[in-house]
Each structure stands twice: as C-alpha cells, then as structure tokens.
Write a structure and sequence with these properties.
With 726 residues, this protein is mainly beta. It has five helices and 50 strands.
C-alpha cells in the first residue's frame, strides 16, 4: 500500500510538471494574510505581566512574540507542546493540536490575542495556542546555541524552559542498566544525571519518544536538553538522543573492593538517589520506583515503598560497592525499620549476597539469601531495629550485598535501612553479643551493648556524657537541620549523648538520651550544666531509636555525682507492665479487623485503635488470666493509661468478672468508672480502684474497646497492678 501511494504521488508530480511546462511564465502571486499592526513583547515581559496581574491572564490586545523553537514534537518526547526561547528567557507552549510543521530552529512569530499566560506546577506556559492561526514560521534553521551550565545552577528559576548543555556528567550507575523509557508499554521514566561532585538532576523521558528503548550510556560527557520544572523538581527533557554524548571514562573510575565500609547515608539529600554514593547501585527491576533517601529529625536513611506508587508490581535492588571477603572473617550489620505495614504475602524485604556479580548485570549473577534480622510487622513505625552481626566468614573473594524490596501500590509497606557496616566480625557493634551488663542498677548495660541491642524497657545504661544533638541555636530558635555537637557551649537541654569513652566524637558510637522535663533534665543537661561533660552517668529508661539512632527514652532515673533518682519498682501480687508483649493478657476480637497489640509507647503498653485509614467499627477485649483473691484483703487495682480521640468512655470500659469462663459475651461484668482517666497520649495513674467486693473470689480484669465507622479512639494500657492496701 505504501509503495502504491508513492507511485501515485510520483504520477501527480509528473502531471503537475507537465502542466507547468505548458503554460506561460506569468505566475499568480500567493495570497498573503495581512496582520494588523501590534506591539512586540518579550518572554521576560510575559513573566512580569503574570506577576503584576497576580496570576493567569488572557491577552485581549494585538501583540506579537518573536522567538526561536528549541524543542518540537519530532522525537515523540513532547506531545502537543513545544518550547521557545528569545534573548530574555524561555516558555512552554501548550498547543491545541500538534504542530507537525514546526521544527527546532524555526524563528516564529506568535499572535498573542486570545492566548492565555498561566503557570502549571511552577512552570510558565502559553496556553491555547492554535498552530494554524497563532504560530507563524518566519524562517527555518536558525537554531539557538545551548547555554553551558552546571547542575547546581539549574536550581535558579531563570533557566526554566531554556536550552542548556551540561559537561562532565553521567547517569547514576543503576540507570545505565536500563533504557531511557519503556517504549513497549509506553511508560514514562525518570533517571538521575549526576556530575563528579554528586550533584544530581532528573532526566524524564516519555514512553512515546523514538529513543525510549535506547540503552542509557555508561560513560561521562555532555548532554543537551531543555529545562523543565515540576514544582520544586527540575527535570530535563532530551530533544534528540544524538545530543547525549557520554563516551568518556566515568567519574571516580573503578571502585576497589573495600575491606571495611560504613555508610550512614547522611550525605544524601532528602529524596536523593543512593546510587550517587560511590559504588552503590539502585536498580528498578520491576516498576518505576527505586530506593531513595529520606530525612527525619536531621537523620538520613534510605527507603523503598510501594505507597502511592500506582504500581501493580514493584521490585527494587540497592547494591553495595564491591566488598573484600578474602580474609574469611567479615560480617555486616545494619539497622532496619518498617512503616505502615500492609504486606499480606510475606516480608517486603530480604538481604542477599553474591560473589559472582561483576558490577554490571545483577540479573545474571547468583544471589543467596542471608538470614539477617529485619524489622517486622509487629515493629513500631520508623523504629529502627539492629540486625546484629551477620557472619560472612563462609564467603571469600569479592562480593556484594543487596537489599531487595518487593511491593506494589497495595502491598505498600515502607522499608528503611540505615547505618550499614561491613568489617571484621565482632567489631561492628549491633552484633547482639558485644558490650556487657545485665541492665540492672548494680550491673548496667554499657554503651556498646546498648547500641548493639537497642531494645528493652526499664533498663540501666552506663556511659560518659559527651555531647548533644543540637535542635536549637544560641537564641533558642529551632534548627531546620539537627546537628551533633561535642563542644561546649551547648544550646539544647532536651537530650544528651553518652558514649563508651569520655573522648568520643562519633555519633555512631553514642546512645542519644531523651531528657524529660523536670528534675532529671535539670540535673543532667549540658546546656546549663556544661561541667557534666566527660562525667560518667547511669540512666534508667527504655532502649529504642531516637533521632533514628540507638537511643534511650522514657528516662525516669539517673545517678550522677553521687546523687540521683532511683525509680521504685511496682509492688503487688499481680503486676503486668507490657514491657515487650501483651504479657499475661489475651486479646479477643468480637468484630472488626483491628486487634489489641503491643506498642513501645511509654515503657511498653497494650494498644487498641479502630483507626485504619479512617474509623472502622470494632469490638475488642483484653482479658487478664485468673487472679486469685481468696486469701487477699483490702485489694486495690491501679492502672496507667493513655487515650486520645476519645468518643465517650462508654466505649472504653474497665471491667471485672468472677464468672468468666472464656466467652466475654456470657460472663457477668462489673464496670469501674470512677478512676482518673487520661485526656491525651500522656500516661496518667488511675488512683486506687477498690476490689473489696470481689475478695475471696477468683476474678478476671478486662478492658473492653468499641469503635464505630465514624469515631475510633486510641487506648493504651501501660500497667496493671493489684495489691493489698495496708
């Protein structure tokens, strides 16, 4: 059919040529559409008018814009939009229909009457342009020369919608194993372009581009592109793949296998690509989302998540630089955390090792799963868990470690990694076997143990006061980025860092201690007590993550300079503190999908909430074991509870039964309501609840929780103590 059309076209031309030869040489002049006179306007003046008018506006005057086309629709990377630039700036042109005849390098005149100047996602655009009426090509083949800039300069808004050239740049290592986009499924993809100083910018390519399935080059060189913007993200669009010339040796050259490696990811920017770190690789095996850096309270970690991805499938690999296992005595340690667990088909992550990966094609290598300790579904959100040392002495030669995440938009649990270490086994901390102590006042944990085993409530830890995490400046103003300080004067009174030695200046070797307001903070903090620096201290609290580092929180005791506070242990014949589990209590779900669970709040607690993306109807009970009061007198019960989003205490009841036999519905329950109740997530003591009416009987204590589709409180039970009152 195509051949037949060509013949028809040729015949038409031949007839036209013959007809032309048979007429005289008097030509009819072509028709000319005479345009009314009008004022010329520049692109920078359009920007000024937008700002003066306070937003989008429509031209009603006869004015003309003269500029050069710097991006057209020819490659398929742009659809119904082109970019133009004059000597004052650049702007995006939104077309009502494609402008197939408009090409890069065309000098054009745009009739402004009726056109709209607006801004979308922080990029200025000229909208509603009809190519046949509003856009007149004056001259062909007068291309603009791209302006040579650096990646860091692109943050300046003045480069938006301009043609630029970057020198000495390269794509992130993981991107070099893929294509510019997915031309088969017509999926747009983002890739990371970087310079030798690790500055990065996004290169975005449409799945409709004629170079979508071209492999991304692995070298260093020059890239010519148009600068676009989506809110705060600068994005480059390539006009022609021939303007990507990356054939020189990459920055950094060959990465040598490391005998030791310590990576806390703190040099990455928030949402940064971890493959910009020397030797690290970030692959998107399935889907278009990889690992990225995330920031919280001044700490940077890396995260993979299917949340809000829109992906039916997602698999991403974060691979370390090459590691040297030749001595046969190596190990790894790291910290992991989860958030908003939704996976129903197993754990979202695994840790793998390969000794035949060459650094260029991970899908062809042999990978073996390592049984490393990972944060689980029962872990609190964003609470980092130490992996312990994973022994790699069975491996020799050169190898790589990979963190693999599998998820989707529905199986969307977030999984986080921080403080990766590789080195001689027994020296990494976080082994679960280093350090000493039993956590008592007489035999406290040392800092090394607390770092490597950062979990457990109601323990004593011993160390030297060495510094603080500064959260405010000298004037008391909050810092946007929190920074460690080991040198007086100190500005922050709400935390301290303790270490194994008094001279420590590395936060990786410290436990960060949260100081509660009151007597403990007053006595310990380095802001008003700078002479405390270097002194040995004992602190009593809960080992858990703080500032995304090994920490000690809910501190209720200390011993310093021969004085302090030693908390009294609760006394009673029945004590449940929910230190690490639901303990002696059992949860029963009558209706709804939410259940009583353990949480780390306070010193550990039982928690129930009917909220799951919205209020959900539930009825759930938490019931004690049988408690024998047959030989007890003057029995009282005390509780420590917290609650928020309260919708009436008739939905959160404290009950006692003496005929419960396993079915909460058939037992007789007596409610106790006259105790002190919480009003927030701050735990409060109930005061004494008299149980004299049940003396001589065997009882069960229950906490009944009810939520509806419109209201769902959160209820936390910290302690339950029954004792005989003197």
């Amino acid at each position: 059919m195509k051949f037949r059309n060509i013949l028809k076209s040729f015949a038409t031309v031949a007839i036209a040529t013959f007809a032309y030869s048979c007429v005289d040489n008097e030509f009819d002049a072509p028709s000319v559409e005479y345009l009314p006179d009008g004022q010329a306007i520049t692109i920078s003046e359009l920007y000024q008018m937008y700002n003066t008018k306070g937003g989008a506006f429509k031209f009603t005057d006869t004015m003309y814009l003269y500029a050069t086309v710097i991006a057209d629709e020819g490659s398929g990377n742009f659809y119904k939009n082109i970019y133009i630039q004059d000597n004052s700036g650049g702007i995006n042109i939104k077309l009502q229909e494609s402008a197939a005849s408009v090409r890069i390098g065309d000098s054009v005149k745009i009739v402004m009457d009726g056109l709209i100047v607006s801004k979308y996602a922080e990029m200025m655009q000229l909208d509603s342009v009809k190519p046949a009426y509003d856009l007149i090509v004056l001259k062909n083949n007068v291309p603009r020369t791209p302006e040579v800039v650096t990646i860091s300069q692109l943050a300046d808004y003045s480069y938006t919608c301009k043609l630029i050239q970057l020198n000495d740049v390269q794509f992130a290592p993981a991107d070099t194993a893929t294509t510019f986009a997915n031309g088969y499924e017509l999926v747009t993809m983002n890739h990371t372009l970087m310079d030798c100083d690790k500055n990065t910018v996004i290169v975005r390519t449409s799945g409709y581009a004629n170079f979508a399935d071209v492999n991304i080059p692995n070298g260093k060189g020059t890239v010519v592109a148009v600068v676009s913007r989506y809110n705060t993200d600068v994005q480059l669009y390539i006009r022609d793949v021939r303007e990507v010339n990356l054939d020189s040796t990459r920055c950094g050259g060959v990465v040598t296998a490391a005998r030791t490696l310590s990576e806390d990811f703190n040099t990455l920017a928030n949402y940064g690509d971890p493959s910009t770190l020397d030797g690290w690789q970030n692959y998107m095996k399935t889907g278009t989302r990889g690992w990225q850096a995330k920031e919280f309270s001044g700490n940077i970690y890396v995260q993979a998540s299917g949340y809000n991805s829109g992906l039916a499938e997602m698999e991403t690999w974060l691979i370390t630089p090459p590691l040297d296992f030749s001595s046969g005595d190596r190990a790894i340690a790291f910290e992991s955390a989860i958030a908003y667990w939704t996976h129903t088909s197993g754990h979202p992550a695994k840790v793998m090792i390969s000794t035949d990966f060459t650094g260029t094609n991970y899908t062809e290598a042999t990978w073996t799963n390592l049984n490393a300790t990972l944060a689980q579904s029962t872990s609190s959100n964003y609470t980092f868990v130490a992996s312990g040392e994973t022994d790699l002495s069975a491996y020799t030669g050169t190898g790589y470690i990979s963190f693999v995440y599998v998820g989707s938009s529905t199986e969307s649990t977030s999984f986080c990694i921080d403080n990766f270490k590789f080195g001689e086994k027994g020296t990494l901390g976080g082994s679960g076997n280093t350090g000493s102590g039993t956590g008592t006042y007489d035999d406290p944990y040392d800092v090394e143990y607390a770092i490597g085993n950062n979990s457990g409530n109601g323990v004593w830890v011993k160390g030297y006061l060495v510094g603080v995490i500064e959260t405010v400046d000298a004037s008391g103003n909050s810092l946007s980025t929190f920074v460690p300080s080991f040198t007086a004067p100190f500005n922050t009174a709400t935390n301290v860092m303790i270490a194994q030695t008094a001279s420590e200046t590395d936060t990786n070797n410290c436990v960060i201690v949260q100081l509660p307001s009151g007597a403990i903070r007053d006595a310990v903090n380095l802001n008003v007590n700078p002479t405390n620096q270097g002194k040995e201290i004992l602190l009593y609290g809960n080992l858990e993550t703080y500032f995304s580092k090994p920490g000690l929180k809910t501190v209720t005791g200390y011993w310093l300079n021969g004085t302090g506070i030693i908390p009294e242990e609760p006394d009673g014949f029945f004590i449940e503190e929910f230190a690490t589990t639901l303990g002696q209590f059992t949860g029963y779900s009558v209706s709804g999908t939410q259940v009583w669970e353990w949480a780390s709040y306070g010193s550990g607690c039982a928690k129930m909430s009917g909220y799951s993306g919205g209020a959900v109807a539930n009825e759930d009970w938490l019931v004690s074991p049988a408690i024998d009061l047959t030989s007890k007198t003057n029995v009282v019960m005390t509780l420590s509870t917290a609650a928020n989003y309260i919708d009436g205490w008739d939905k959160m009841q404290v009950l006692v039964s003496d005929d419960y036999s396993g079915d909460v519905a058939t037992a007789t329950w007596t409610e106790f309501s006259g105790y002190t109740k919480p009003t927030s997530f701050t735990f409060v003591d109930s005061g004494e609840i008299s149980l004299t009416a049940f003396e001589g009987k065997t009882i069960y204590v229950a906490f009944k929780y009810v939520s509806t589709g419109s209201a769902a409180a959160t209820w936390e039970i910290g302690t339950v103590v029954l004792k005989e009152k003197n």
